[in-house]
Each structure stands twice: as C-alpha cells, then as structure tokens.
Amino acid sequence: MNPGEQYLRAAVASSAVVIGDYSTSFSLATRMMPRRVRGHVTSIYGLVRVADEIVDGACHTDPGGHLDRLEQDVRAALRDGFSANLVVHAFAHTARTTGFGTELTTPFFDSMRSDLTPAPHTAQSLAQYIHGSAEVVGLMCLRAYVSGVAESDYERLSPDAVRLGAAFQKINFLRDLSDDEIRLGRAYLPELTRDAFEVALRDAEADLRAGRAGITRLPRDVRRGVRTAADLYAELLRRLRIAGLDGARSGRIRVPTTAKAAVLVRSVANR
C-alpha cells in the first residue's frame, strides 16, 4: 500500500468513528452498503456531522469562523485532492471520485451558516434550508451509488434522492423539537399547533413514501442499505405520531436499540 492509499484509509476510518459515535442509525445503514459505496457514504456523513457539530454547540468560540474555515478546507481539497484534516480529505476524495463539487457543497454550507443566526422560517426559507441541509446530501450519496455502474441514471434518479433527503430532515425537525427550541433557539416549524404537527407528520410521510418508492430504481447492490435507512426513519416517524406534539416537545424521540435491530432484520429479509 502506497502512502496515499494508507492516508486515505485512515481518513475514511476517522469519518467512520465520527458517524459511529453520533448516529447508530446511519452507522447501521452504512454497514449494509456494498464495499464500493460504503467508504464514500461514510465520508459524506462524516463531513456533514462535523459541520453540524460546529453549529450545534460543540464549538464554543467563533463557530462562524470555524465553519468558514471548514468550507475553505473543503474547497481547497476539492481542488487539490488533499487535506491535513482527515474528514475533509475523505470527503474530497469521494467528491472527486464520484463527480460532485461546489454545486452541492455551497448550498450545504449556506444552510449550516443560517443555523448560527436562527430566525423563524418562512415557507421559502425553510425549503431553501432543507435543500442545502438534506437534499444535496441525498444527491451526494446518489453520486456514490451510481458511480461506475449507472452514472447516466443520475438525473433520472435525482428526484427520488431529493425526496428521501427531505423526508429525513423533516423527521429530524420533529424529533429534535425540544433541543432546537429550548437549547438552540431555532424555529424550523414556527407556531406549531397540534394540527400543524399532524400536517408536518403527513408532509414528511409523503416525502418518505415517494423516496422509498424510488429505492427499487437504484443499483441493486445499494438498495438494502438505503432501505434500511428509510425503514429506520419510518419507525421514528411512527413513534413521533404516537408521542404527539406534547411528547415531541418533552424530549427527543428515539428508536431503541432493540427496535433498530428488528428493523435491520426486516430490511435484510426483504432484500
């Protein structure tokens, strides 16, 4: 193994540590991916998580400056193919290998930056935020899914990836109501009444249903991993509906480990 390959292996491993520590759901789903895709998806979510943590409170001094520098590091690595930041290096390798660049990273960082100065969203600003924070991540992953096997299908499959990414983010909004409103002072869904909560649930469910329908059009070897992630979010959505608005506001709704294991078994059985 040459030094560049060894460094990349360490970079991807560092991203795996990040997502394993922060999200057992995505870690589980990633393990269901074929080897040709697994490292790419890991690298994408590793970078996304680092940016999330900068704006969500892990950085106590000048989070805006750190986010700007992270974006600058990403841009430089996309151009040069190297970064001393292992997570950035892994992400840039994935971007350069699978064929995406600043057309997806710029809206992502724009959405992350908007979290630093929270204000009630309009329908238009919320749609823009969801595009940058989630839909483009779905498109990054889609680039990895089709790389080397079905690259000409990217445009045809993009609407499904966008709907699935939007569904995940909308469910996250409902899951994180308490933390977002109380600790972070964010109002992704302002003036949320019980009726509005039900509308938000139905909206997320519609996106999830549309995104799941598109899974059968993906390359066969990635379907199980994507289905696992979608099934985990479907279970979270079910629990949010049971909890209702008061339950969601009382604390973060979670899918217990045993329930995640059951979802995983069903996903394997239904491949």
Give the tags:
271 residues
What's the average pLDDT? 91
Basic shape:
globular
Helix fraction bin: over 70%
Report the end-to-end length measured between terminal Cα atoms. Answer: 35 Å
Determine the number of helices (DSSP H or I, runs of at least 4 residues): 12
- Major sheet summary line: none
Spans where pLDDT lies below 50 across 5 or more residues: none
Instruction: Give the strand tally.
Output: 0
Which structural category do the helix and sheet elements fall into? mainly alpha
Oligomer: single chain
Order of helices and strands: HHHHHHHHHHHH
- Measured on Cα atoms, how large is the radius of gyration? 18 Å
Strand content: under 5%
Please characterize this protein's 3D structure:
This protein has 271 residues and is mainly α. The protein contains twelve helices and no strands. Helix 5 crosses helix 7, helix 7 packs across helix 8 and helix 10 packs antiparallel against helix 11. It is globular and about 55 Å long. It starts with a helix and ends with a helix. The model has no long low-confidence stretch (mean pLDDT 91).
Draw up the topology in text.
Blueprint: H1 3-22, H2 24-31, H3 35-58, H4 63-80, H5 86-98, H6 102-114, H7 123-146, H8 154-175, H9 177-183, H10 194-213, H11 220-250, H12 257-269
Helix pairs in contact: 1-3, 1-5, 2-3, 2-11, 3-4, 3-5, 3-7, 4-5, 4-6, 5-7, 6-7, 7-8, 8-10, 8-11, 10-11, 11-12
